[in-house]
Fold:
Amino acid sequence: MNSASEPSSGPAPRQPAAEGLAWLPRYPSLLEINTWAWLNRLSQKAGKAITLGEVDDAALDDLARQGFDWVWLLGVWRRSAASRAVSRGEHAWRAGFQAALPDLTEEDISGSGFAIGAYEVEEALGGKAALAEFRARLAQRGLRLMLDFVPNHTALDHPWVKTNPDFFVQGIEESLDAAPENYVRIETDRGARILAHGRDPNFPGWTDTLQLNYANPALQAAQMAELASIAQHCDGLRCDMAMLLLPEVFQRSWGLTPAPFWPKAIAAVRRTHPGFTFLAEAYWDLEWTLQQQGFDYCYDKRLNDRLRDGDASAIRAHLVAGLDYQDRLARFLENHDEPRAAASFLWPRHRAAAIVAYFAPGLRFFQDGQFEGARIRLPVHLRRGPLEPRDPDIADFYGRLLAVLRKGDTFRDGAWSLIAPQPAWAGNPTSQDFIAYAWRAPDDGSYVAVVNYSDHQGQCYLRLPFATLADKPTRLVDEMGSETYDRDGRTLIDPGLYIDLKAWGYNLFRLEALRPRLRLRSHPDAREPAVGMMLVGRRFDEPTLYRAAFAFE
Structure:
């Protein structure tokens, strides 16, 4: 990507409108909510049990006010009694539950939301009718609903285990003897079977699940029917461990090579539900592959890892990819699988990482509790979360960040480009610690985001890619801070905007072209006769007059 060029202003690829909803912006925002924990908090506040159908208007209004386009409700589907028993009996898991929730009770352990017994809404959440009402109330506020699809595995007592055991990866006695953590003997309607636990090829099996066999065409047909049913209840799906279904990955895991599933499954859903959105949990640099198979967005775990590693050069290298790829990445600092941002990015590094992640192009992915500075990652097996104090600094920062993101069209539908930092002077290597972006929208102005992503002070020049400012004095106003500067537009392009930031410092400048008035009579240094002699009998273009006026101002 040429950092010296204007930000790309070609047609923005936009998500089609879902049923009854407006078009999504090019760069939408999503909030992940742990449904059980969220409703538990609302219930405690209300003094009674709250279902999805009883969430008050103020809570939904707040989601809309913060500028989200998507709400992902994690864990609404019916959990499994057999898998819940495993959750309660696994001592290693229980130690993690106790660490997250010191006053843990047996009732708090509801079983994993990814060990699904059936794609039916839990009655304790209000059932199917409550989910439909919740979705309709979101839509009234311009919000879409995303739910879970767990394609790789089921709960231990899913109905298919009894009726269709051939839908699952089979083992033999030797498999069970050699890897008892990866296989289990289960009674089915066709007799006892040894079935594999769900897993990825790099880790032991998830012992509360059973692995589906995508090399069986009948299983693929059944899963497509399941998807068609689920899609009636939401506007999009987050697909758990989506890359595990890719033929080459499945073959490496199980020695079986299935036909591709995602292209035909996604196309089938969209024939019935135009505009339906698919988000892939994806790792191992398989994001592009999944995008080509139909996914709208894929997790950008690579950026998250590089932000944690702290290497600005590696982050910039990741961000040079084409927008046909980057626009379809989900940028996040935390989610239910990752450590909380407030715990893993110490202040003020947390702020710097957020500016890098959330002002990059793509889907902006946040988690409930992130804005208040929650530090405890809640295991998905629990239905209740800990009470944590609100961090006022983090809350204030995210309040300002969300306000900027929803202000105008620039960061939702504008054009983005990466700016290559230039050395401030010979022998100063700190320019390599900077990450900088240009944003532009025709009706909303130009912006520059810059971060010193290091633990020491640094300096650089940024050659801004805004050619229209070259002949105008320009004001830079920091939208995330209090700084304001006036500069000659020519110098912003060459040698560039000079930046000097402390460790983990950042600016988000809005650029405004100034139109100064000629106030020569009142200026103590004005030599009016000389200026008059310069002007009489000559014609000057507007930029020349601007520069002359700017010199006197």
